[in-house]
Amino acid sequence: MIDQAEEMVKKKPREFLLGFMVILLLFFGTTFLAGYFYYQNPPKGMIKTKEKKPVVVVKKKEYYILKQGESLSDVAATKYGDSLLYPTIIKLNQIKYPDFVEPGTRLRVK
Q1: How far are the Cα atoms of 11, 22, 23, 108 from residue 6, in angstroms, in the given order?
Q2: Can you give the pLDDT at residue 46?
């Protein structure tokens, strides 16, 4: 077997090198691909991962006390920068009659 390989190297060195390179490429290529796919989908329990804890966002509620002569649109302009956002205050506070909100009423604005 070794004699045949030596004979082929002497007679056809290009073909021998090409065949040898193809064998190397096939061996290392399949080894690489097998390892790549193995680590992409490892068996359960092989790789320990940290558990992701759910992120809880706590929004701080902000309140505003309605003053004498103020309307909900005035409060919206003060807190949101736009008086047309007064329906947001109505929804947050579940106000049934927005035209009749008394001064001193505590309004949730955020």
Answers
A1: 9, 18, 17, 91
A2: 61
Distance CA 91, CA 85 (A): 11
pTM of the model: 0.47
Choice between 27 and 33, residue whose per-residue pLDDT is larger: 27
Q: What is the mean pLDDT of residues 51-79?
A: 88
CATH superfamily of domain region 63-108? LysM domain (3.10.350.10)
What amino acid is encoded at 75 in this protein?
V
Enumerate the domain spans of the chain. 2-40, 63-108
Both structure tokens of 3: 């004699």
Q: Is the pLDDT of residue 43 over 70?
A: no
Q: By three-state DSSP, how is residue 32 classified?
A: helix
d(CA 103, CA 110): 19
Percent of the chain exceeding pLDDT 90 equals 41
Supply the Cα-derived Rg of the chain in whole angstroms.
38
DSSP helix/strand/coil, 17: helix
